[in-house]
Every structure is written in structure tokens, then in C-alpha cells.
């Protein structure tokens, strides 16, 4: 499990953070879950997406829709 930093008081947060994962075998699936966190109700799931990486030829950046009413996350896959 890897966590990004929190973007306070934003309805359209941009993180610009990068996380690296060593993958030993393909295919692999990576699940990304976005949370809304505040001091009153702690955390609430905004949405999530599971990204399937089938092979090394899938390198590049792609926007993925979250499984909620709105929201996207951009993932970049490098070889």
C-alpha cells in the first residue's frame, strides 16, 4: 500500500506525485483508490480503478475513469 500526500480544501486536487513499483511478472493489476479525508468523518472512498498491465508494450500515460460519478486518475507505465 502506498499513499500520496493530502491536498487540503480542494474539489479538484492535483497531486503530481510519482510512485514506482517493481513488477516481476506480467500481467499484473494495480488498484488505485481515491479518498476524501477530513477531521469530521475521517475518510470516504471517492472512487477507484483497477489498471491491468498486460505487457511491456503498454508504456505511456493514460487517463482512467474512477468507478464513481466523476473523477479520473492519470497513470504512466514505463518499461
Automatic annotation (TrEMBL):
InterPro entries: BAGP1-like, C2_dom, C2_domain_sf. Pfam families: C2 (PF00168). Gene3D superfamilies: C2 domain. Residues 1-68 form the C2 domain. This is Os02g0605400 protein. It comes from Oryza sativa subsp. japonica (Rice). The lineage of its organism: Eukaryota, Viridiplantae, Streptophyta, Embryophyta, Tracheophyta.
Amino acid at each position: 500500500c502506498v499513499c500520496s500526500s493530502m491536498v487540503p480544501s480542494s474539489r479538484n486536487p492535483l497531486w503530481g506525485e510519482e510512485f514506482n513499483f517493481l513488477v516481476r511478472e506480467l500481467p499484473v493489476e494495480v488498484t488505485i483508490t481515491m479518498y476524501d479525508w477530513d477531521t469530521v468523518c475521517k475518510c470516504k472512498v471517492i472512487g477507484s480503478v483497477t489498471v491491468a498491465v498486460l505487457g511491456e508494450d503498454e508504456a505511456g500515460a493514460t487517463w482512467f475513469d474512477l468507478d464513481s460519478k466523476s473523477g479520473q486518475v492519470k497513470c504512466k507505465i514505463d518499461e
